[in-house]
Amino acid sequence: MSPLVLLGIGALAGFVVLVILFILALVLGEAPESADDPADRVDDEAIEAAFHAHGVRFG
């Protein structure tokens, strides 16, 4: 077989492995614990206040 054909097959196999890992991460993964942490909201409020203090406006 030509080296380019082997390279293409290897690249395709690598892509398939990445897709399978991505699907497994979606199925088996869970949201980080900090997503529901009330202390995280306090950090978000402090960050927004700092942005507003420096003239950054969203929306």
Residue windows where pLDDT falls under 50 for at least 5 positions: none
What is the general shape? Answer: elongated
Helix percentage range: over 70%
Distance between the termini: 57 Å
Gyration radius (Cα, Å) is 22 Å
Average predicted confidence as pLDDT: 85
Number of structural units classed as domains = 1
Tally of DSSP helical segments: 2
The counted number of beta strands is 0
Based on secondary structure, the structural category is: mainly alpha
Describe the structure.
With 59 residues, the protein is an all-alpha fold. It has one domain. The protein has two helices and no strands. The chain has helices at 3-28, 38-53. The mean pLDDT is 85.
List its salient traits:
71% helix, elongated, 59 residues, mainly alpha
Layout of SSEs?
Layout: H1 3-28, H2 38-53
Gist of the model:
The chain contains 2 helices and no strands. The chain has helices at residues 3-28, 38-53. It starts with a helix and ends in a 6-residue tail after the last helix.
